[in-house]
Amino acid sequence: MRIAIYTLGCKVNQYETQAMEQELAAQGHQLVDFEQAADAYIINTCSVTAVSDKKSRQMIRRAKNRNPAAIIAACGCYVQTHTDEAAALGIDLIGGTGQRMEFLHQLLAAAEEKQTRILVDDALRRHEFEILPAGGQHSRTRAMLKVEDGCRNFCTYCIIPFARGPVRSLPLAAAARQTEQLACQGYREVVLTGIEISSWGQDLPGQEGLIDLLEAVSAAAGTMRVRLGSLEPRTVTEEFCRRASALKNLCPHFHLSLQSGCDATLRRMNRRYDTTRFTESALLLHRFFPDCALTTDLIVGFPGETEEEFSTTLGFIRRCGFAQIHVFPYSVRPGTKAADMEQVPKNIKEERAARAGEVAAALHEEYLQSCVGKTLPVLFEQPGAPGFYTGHAPNYMEVSAPGENLHNCLRPVRITAVEGGILKGEIEP
After folding, report:
1. Residue 359: CA count within 13 A, CB half-sphere
2. Is residue 185 situated within a structural domain?
3. Is the residue at 9 inside a domain?
4. Who contacts 382 (Cβ-Cβ below 8 Å, separation ≥6)?
5. CB–CB of 422/400 below 8 Å?
6. How many CB atoms neighbour CB 118 within 10 A?
7. What CATH number is associated with residue 104?
């Protein structure tokens, strides 16, 4: 069959899509672009915000309109938490956030029988980590490796614990083995990802934590770059930074989850840190990785957020000097505690998002300018403007340089300028 997959959401979804691609290709199916005619369409959905829900529904409808005779299947967080709503869209196969290989088996069965199937379990009852094949399409330079699934934090704004279930970890030996496989497949970078990777190992016997996993993966990666996904501040201790800084293939890019720079707001969010603890983590990272890129997420307009609280947040993010900030207006998630709190009017949320975005843009530009004059090893991925190739430096900043046929090549690039949010440079001999 000709099968097309569209992925929404986080790196965990991207990883799970890569695993499905690999399995489908091994079975002899042809993977095609989502915009092309296909016999089956798979939409890997997201539900982190109301916009994600809407986009998931849109892509399901787009697939149905593109080929009404095709099998339409959906998996992921949106259909896990909104199963009835998804069923009303006329999907042939509804999967959730687990049982990915069984989902593919059911896809083939649905293609033969044209019978609606629902494969959604109770995520909160999951206790085993689902090991999926590592790797994906060979055209990619970077591979995701999911090492953890689930979350037990239950932040008041977040639906994901209900969509993904409790913490489950990929055993250390399996993570190392899959990393070796990715290196053998020709990938130049592996990204450790999970719903909450700071909790890796909590469900496994023994006392190993994320830094132990990171050391094992780094050793198995060889010359491959290793990049971490989102971290909680509690993870970043002096011991963690000391041991991590000894890993020569670890990318100095740390996404440290913030959400708010005001302690009162953080308490209403049920975040497990305050701004003092966050600052300690940020300072430790800058001490052990002097040129690192510190990135974060920010929710504005959270229920109860006053103008004073928002101003406190703006001041805090300025002091942290983030390289990049993803700003989100708070989105009501039915079934969460925050949904029942006093809501900030939509126009105020949008206005605050715009103001925070201006600060984020200024900080991002400042960080990019600090890269000018430096030589950075760039992993080139795809053609850019005519005569140019683009890729990413270890700090995950996008870089463009003159060149051809550089796909999956690692080259030293001297950064000469910043243009349109992209670092421009020249490849050094």
Report:
1. 22
2. no
3. yes
4. 389, 390, 391, 407
5. yes
6. 15
7. 3.40.50.12160
Angle CA 273–276–281, to nearest 5: 80
Give bridge partners of residue 392 from the DSSP assignment: 379, 398
The pLDDT tens digits for 139-148 are 678 899 999 9
Residue 192 forms part of a structural domain: no
In the block, which residue shows the tokens 């953080």? 266
In the chain, % of residues over pLDDT 70 = 99
Q: Which of 44, 31, 34 is nearest to 137 (CA)?
A: 31
Residue 56's nearest CA partner among 1, 98, 94 is: 94
Angle between the N-to-C axes of helices 307-320 and 275-288, in degrees from 0 to 180, rounded to the nearest 10: 10
Neighbours of 107 (CB within 10 A): 24
Amino acid at 188: R
- Residue ending a domain, choose from 121, 141, 161: 121
Question: What average pLDDT does the chain have?
Answer: 95
Residue range of the domain that includes 59:
2-121
Rounded CA separation 305/210 (Å): 33
> Is the sign of the CA dihedral 52, 55, 59, 61 positive or negative?
positive
Name the nearest CA neighbour of 165 among 230, 103, 119, 121. Answer: 121
Banded pLDDT at 2 (limits 50, 70, 90)? very high
CATH number at residue 413: 2.40.50.140
Q: Over the stretch 300-356, which tens digit does the pLDDT of each residue have? A: 999 999 999 999 999 999 999 999 999 999 999 999 999 999 999 999 999 999 999
Dump pLDDT digits (tens) for 18-68.
Answer: 899 989 999 999 999 999 999 999 999 999 999 999 999 999 999 999 998
